[in-house]
Amino acid sequence: MTTWSRLAGAALSGAVACLLLGTSAIAADDAATIKLGAAVSLTGKYSSNGVYTRNGYDLAVKRINENGGVKVGGKTYKLEVVYYDDESTPARGAQLAERLIQQDGVKYLLGPYSSGLTEAMAPVTEKYGVPMVEANGAAISLFQKGYKYLFAVLTTTDQYLKGAVELAADQASDPGKLKVAMAFENDPFSQDVRAGVTDDAKRFGMKVVVDDKLPPELNDMSATLTKVKLLKPDLLIVSGHEKGAATAVRQIADQRVNVPMLAMTHCDSAQIAEKLGKAAEYTLCGAQWAASLTYSDALFGKASDYAALYEKTYNEAAPYQAAESSAAVQVFADAFARAGSLDPKAVRDALSKTDINSFYGPVKFDETGKNVGKPTVILQVQDGKYVVVYPEKWAEAKLRAPTPTWDKR
Hints:
The radius of gyration is 21 Å and the shape is globular. The longest helix has 20 residues, at about 45-65. The chain has two domains: about 5-155 and about 290-365, Response regulator (Rossmann fold), CATH 3.40.50; about 160-285 and about 380-409, Rossmann fold. The protein has helices at about 5-10, 45-65, 90-100, 115-130, 160-170, 190-205, 220-230, 240-255, 265-270, 270-275, 305-315, 320-340, 345-350; strands at about 20, 35-40, 70, 75-85, 110, 130-135, 150, 180-185, 205-215, 235-240, 260-265, 285, 295, 300, 355-360, 360-365, 375-380, 385-390. It is α/β, with parallel strands linked by helices. A hairpin with a 2-residue loop joins β3 and β4 (about 75-85).
């Protein structure tokens, strides 16, 4: 199995490669620099997560460079990222991917934030034979199109809230009698999460009583919550990115909607515990990573070490979106070293054989480019903190369920 020890031990002196925004300028010693390109959402709908994505890339590049860079075929290189703002728009993302490849001469791309933007950029990188390692596009549909140059370090959408359905089943004497309400934004990511939840509910014989599609830029869930009050489901599942998460928690509290279990995506990026306080208590959150997990590598150390470094660098807790973005840079560096060449085809072939352990978790790609080595986790907001409650082997605390009714909270 390839490990980070060979990379962390490489020797290279010099300044840390500059990290650029919206420019094709390069470091002074171009011969010793590998340029990675990234179009990320610094403005628009996905800007919060776009910043986390950029932070994760930057932190890994800085760490790799400080540890000697990457040794490729007997020569050492530092990494550098050329950034553009895709404005949270798929069409803009595709244009920028073309610009990075055609004008800036970038031969390797880091992915954008969101499945929709990744979906827009993947045909461009495939057309030019440019490897893209992405960390924030989990839609299962991305890996059903035969792409050969697309690789994703994160677990696919169908797994995001599987644990929430299993936890609900574990709490019931007869899971087949449970009722499920679902509300999902009508975008590739959330609809794929929905498909996974539907399959899991069916596996336990649960009955879906609400199945709503939510519009983008969601700011009102009243219609869905009216149904929830009437039909009294045992489990409510919501996926609407950070805006949907915040809207759901806030309106459930405002309208005093009682539901025994609430599960959703994007809790941490929406900062529901930090911003919504007691209203967020008991919420279950699908996550790709947590600082308490026992993963480790030679570059960052333990998951908790990465979290501490991120917090020291950016003065905020490390979200999983940043962690997975850092892992994408690590995967590229590992592939460069194993390929022994900077030829994009050779790098692609090395990526396809990736099998590493990292602070973020195992990364091993199947023939479609998705990571089959790492599970997701379920966090629960307990006393204002996000704690792992699933899988059991990583649980920091016991699940608190069912959620008390509002008159007892």
